[in-house]
Amino acid sequence: xxxxxxxxxxxxxxxxxxxxxxxxxxxxxxxxxxxxxxxxxxxxxxxxxxxxxxxxxxxxxxxxxxxxxxxxxxxxxxxxxxxxxxxxxxxxxxxxxxxxxxxxxxxxxxxxxxxxxxxxxxxxxxxxxxxxxxxxxxxxxxxxxxxxxxxxxxxxxxxxxxxxxxxxxxxxxxxxxxxxxxxxxxxxxxxxxxxxxxxxxxxxxxxxxxxxxx
DNA sequence: AGCAAGATTAGC
DNA sequence: CTAATCTTGCTA
Length: 214
Description:
The chain is of the alpha+beta class. It has five helices and eight strands. It has a single domain (5-207), classed as 3-methyladenine DNA Glycosylase, Chain A, CATH 3.10.300.10. Strands 1, 2, 3, 4, 5, 6, 7 and 8 form an eight-stranded antiparallel sheet that branches. A hairpin with a 3-residue loop joins strand 3 and strand 4 (80-86). It binds a DNA duplex through residues 41, 43, 50-52, 55, 58-60, 74-80, 82, 84, 97, 99, 117, 127-130, 167-171, 189, 198-200, 203.
């Protein structure tokens, strides 16, 4: 069953956890590829400086303010796209970033889409930029519904426990525990406990070394 | 109009 | 550890 639009209209954190274990599917002329969601991050409507919507509505982020169940595809660092699903009812800005997939179908297709990097299977979908590439998600998918073909989410299964950590790579709101993942899964982008800083955060730390980031 | 920063990745 | 790479949004 394809997840219906009302699956996404709840609170962002709730939807983020509910998305773990669900299946992301993309049907293209080249074939079908799919993967199970194993890692996500929540971006909240309120008190979340890390959310793109935190500084108000702009042409780029306006889709997060719109109705739930739509894709927010964001171009980052000049090389990579991020795939988010819009949450909350219309007018309330919230989104969930998909950060890790466990490949199910279309492995060949995924490898093909990422061949130029000669990635091994584990490196195929264990990161937001990677899975977007492996699934063949593109700029055009921005603002498209994810409760309709060709790019949509299906009901999956979750047996694993949900782990929680802070979000990865943020300069603002980096201390909030809004990253959720399936414990023990091999397709998690960054292992819990590993410290990693975004270029922006490094710069920030450098300019004020005394100001320790909690 | 110009510039800095960014929800990352791969390669040294 | 750091360059790559380019769009967006802010500042002048």
